[in-house]
Amino acid sequence: MGDSCCNPLSMGAMKKMVEEEVLGIYVLSLMIGKSVVQDTENSFFMDVNEQVSFVCDQLAQDPKLKGGYNAMGFSQGSQFLRAVVQRCPDPPMKNLISVGGQHQGVFGLPHCPGESSHICDWIRKMLNSGAYTDAIQKHLVQAQYWHDPLDDLYKKHSLFLADINQEWVVNETYKKNLMSLNKFVMVKFLQDTMVDPVDSEWFGFYKPGQAKELETLQESAIYTEDRLGLAEMDSAEMDSAGKLVFLATDGDHLQFTREWFNDNLLPYLR
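Predicted structure:
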């Protein structure tokens, strides 16, 4: 949100760091649009489903990825890449690393990139006034993973998150594709001031019908009903045991050291 593929202080620096650490690795930093400016704007205003289709086309057309690839998403990019693996199995995604992603969505925007910007205030106004109206759902990215636990409108009208989380109907293809991952790594930031609730970074969320008491992934319906195959991926009794990896680090949203990254995440990119 508010970033681009090639910002030398963020995603550009991450690409360079991985290339330095893994000799000969090919890193594709995805640009959504035809320019850095478009990429940044699209992180706020482009329909997420269209973004996912755009990325699926990029991946399918890249000959260097035809044998499979590892994917790493940062913040909202994490749940967008999960949609990629669920919807687009060719080329195959091997490992998915979610760094501060919000897999059960958010119910709050306590800290928005560019806090002095009028864009952040406008987004809050739109989410509070009608996150599930057609106009806002289709044209505001953050509304598409806005998860109001107090209102059934989320399940009825969410155009993105409700679909990939199987809130409407169980799409067995989504489930099969997600379960094909070797590892699904989720990183939670213990001092996160941007994601509300922070438990969404580990696929947790508020218990239905209220916004105070939280439940873990393992306590949630998406797990107990195994709508996505996460219970099977997490089960010690299954051949797929150990596919879910839960990591935590101190620090605010997306704040980690190079040493921590190398020790904890780099092994999934080799």
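Summary: The chain has a mean pLDDT of 89.
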